């Protein structure tokens, strides 16, 4: 996969924040966690039920979203959808330019007659990634009156990641076919996961009776759009349902789909108390608007910039673990908060945890007057200088500007002064993984108040003495209050 992608996997996800990552392998995919469920179907009913699973996936996901944060960036309500697709994008440049379908896919059309349509397309479209011993020849097994294991097909199918994936298997000499729903996220609690699964199963039962052929009731593009909208916006998504009617996800779920799922579970003989419990969790979650994703977004917003970015996200994780121990479903959780207590040291071990990444920069040919105005407007004492290629070529300090004001440049007053004439060239830099104490020592040794932070020859942040003063102030305040 790495060879086919040119040795680099690029991830770009835009939400409240923007995450851009280049990685040399597929392991970013390991950030994904999910709760995958299987729905067993007969071969003769596969097309009908698979299409129905595709149709309900968007609304079900809207109610279940639970992965809004990745690497301390606030992204989609179900960021896992974008991350999984991009982190496993092994297409060559030519395939990307042709719009070749990715291995992670929702699909492009309804299934007409049989699961064979999917298997044939995937075998034709995607090359084999893993080879091995596959046992007996399936044709010979059939001729002997046995059920073939189709190990080669199953192995290849395991490297194509449809969000609703057909699965063939055998048990005690009997073949079976399943629809694997890969959309549901893990968490926030076990009971939330079971409620999500019950919602999917209930809808599959109820809507199969209501819509014997869902392809006559809605366009495939609407089903796919619903899926993507739900991943981005959760319960705030705008969905198109049967007959082309549009609803907010919250309205569609409350008015139609939650009652239908409840009826479907009861019709299928599920115990009434279990139906009440798990459908009740879904109903309360949807009415409150508090999915797992929304809880995380609301918690970070409620912290209102307290502490560092790293501290706020540590507080979010700590609160998640604490609330999971309460046996409450996610929509009943209290918002995470940051009070400055706890073991603060883990949030300040490296420069990457304390640096500023929202940077203002100037170019070497920019006028000093512009740089001075920028520093005044944004209350800055240091500004990195980047060339047209984005390379760090210097550092402009407030002290250098003061020298210009005090002594004037070595040229006529009528001549404009460029930043390159007064900037500090080849400034001392650090890496995001540089230990904080080592960084402080470097500042003292080189007698500088600012260090640009570089990664792979790119400017990714800046750390200043003011950052450390602010940290020291907050920690001292906590210690004095406790004592």
DSSP summary, beta strand count: 16
Q: What is the CATH architecture descriptor of the largest domain?
A: 2-Layer Sandwich
Low-confidence stretches: none
CATH topology label of the largest domain: Creatine Kinase, Chain A, domain 2
Radius of gyration: 28 Å
Under CATH at level 1, the class of the largest domain stands as Alpha Beta
| Cα-to-Cα separation, first versus last residue | 57 Å
From the spread of the alpha carbons, the general shape counts as elongated
Major sheet description:
3 strands, antiparallel
The helicity comes to: 40-55%
Word description of this protein:
- The protein has 483 residues and is of the alpha+beta class.
- It folds into 3 domains: 9-287, Creatine Kinase, Chain A, domain 2; 292-337, no CATH class; 351-482, CBS-domain (Roll), CATH 3.10.580.10.
- Helices cover 42% and strands 15% of the residues.
- It has helices at 46-64, 79-87, 93-97, 116-125, 138-143, 151-157, 190-210, 220-233, 249-267, 272-288, 292-303, 309-324, 368-378, 398-407, 436-446, 465-482; strands at residues 9-14, 18-23, 37-41, 69-70, 73-74, 104-105, 161-162, 164-171, 174-181, 238-240, 246-248, 382-386, 392-397, 424-425, 450-455, 458-464.
- A hairpin with a 5-residue loop joins strand 10 (238-240) and strand 11 (246-248).
- Helix 1 (46-64) packs parallel to helix 8, helix 7 crosses helix 10 (272-288) and helix 9 packs antiparallel against helix 10.
- 32% of the residues are buried.
């Amino acid at each position: 996969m790495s060879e086919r992608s040119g040795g680099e996997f690029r991830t770009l996800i835009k939400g409240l924040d923007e995450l851009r990552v280049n990685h040399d392998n597929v392991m970013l995919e390991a950030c994904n966690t999910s709760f995958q469920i299987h729905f067993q179907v007969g071969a003769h009913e596969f097309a009908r039920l698979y299409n129905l699973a595709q149709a309900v996936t968007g609304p079900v996901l809207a109610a279940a979203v639970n992965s809004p944060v990745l690497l301390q960036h606030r992204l989609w309500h179900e960021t896992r959808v974008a991350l999984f697709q991009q982190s496993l994008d092994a297409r060559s440049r030519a395939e990307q330019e042709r719009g070749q379908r990715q291995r992670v896919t929702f699909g492009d059309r309804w299934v007409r007659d049989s699961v064979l349509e999917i298997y044939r397309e995937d075998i034709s479209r995607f090359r084999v990634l893993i080879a091995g011993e596959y046992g007996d020849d399936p044709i010979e097994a059939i001729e002997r009156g046995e059920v073939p294991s189709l190990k080669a097909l199953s192995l290849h199918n395991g490297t194509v990641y449809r969000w609703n994936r057909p699965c063939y298997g055998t048990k005690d000499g009997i073949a079976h076919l399943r629809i694997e729903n890969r959309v549901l996220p893990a968490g926030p609690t076990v009971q939330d996961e079971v409620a999500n699964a019950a919602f999917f199963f209930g809808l599959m039962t109820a809507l199969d009776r209501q819509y014997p052929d869902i392809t006559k009731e809605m366009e495939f593009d609407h089903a796919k759009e619903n899926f993507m909208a739900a991943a981005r916006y959760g319960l705030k998504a705008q969905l198109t349902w049967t007959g082309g009617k549009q609803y907010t996800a919250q309205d569609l779920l409350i008015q139609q789909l939650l009652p239908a799922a409840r009826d479907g579970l009861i019709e299928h003989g599920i115990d009434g108390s279990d139906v009440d419990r798990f459908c009740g969790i879904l109903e309360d979650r949807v009415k409150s608007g508090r999915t797992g994703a929304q809880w995380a977004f609301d918690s970070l917003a409620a912290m209102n910039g307290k502490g560092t970015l790293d501290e706020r996200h540590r507080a979010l994780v700590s609160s998640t673990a604490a609330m999971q121990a309460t046996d409450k479903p996610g929509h009943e959780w209290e918002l995470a908060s940051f009070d400055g207590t706890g073991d603060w040291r883990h949030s300040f071990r490296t420069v990457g945890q304390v640096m500023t990444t929202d940077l203002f920069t100037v170019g070497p040919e920019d006028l000093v007057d512009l740089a001075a105005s920028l520093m005044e407007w944004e209350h800055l004492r240091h500004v990195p200088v980047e060339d047209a290629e984005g390379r760090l070529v210097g550092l402009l300090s407030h002290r250098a500007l003061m020298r210009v004001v005090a002594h004037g440049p070595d040229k006529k007053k009528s001549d404009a002064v460029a930043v390159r004439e007064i900037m500090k060239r080849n400034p001392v830099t650090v890496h995001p993984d540089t230990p904080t104490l080592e960084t402080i020592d470097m500042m003292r040794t080189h007698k500088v108040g600012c260090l640009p932070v570089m990664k792979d020859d790119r400017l990714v942040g800046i750390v200043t003495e003011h950052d450390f003063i602010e940290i020291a102030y907050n920690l001292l305040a906590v210690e004095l209050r406790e004592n």
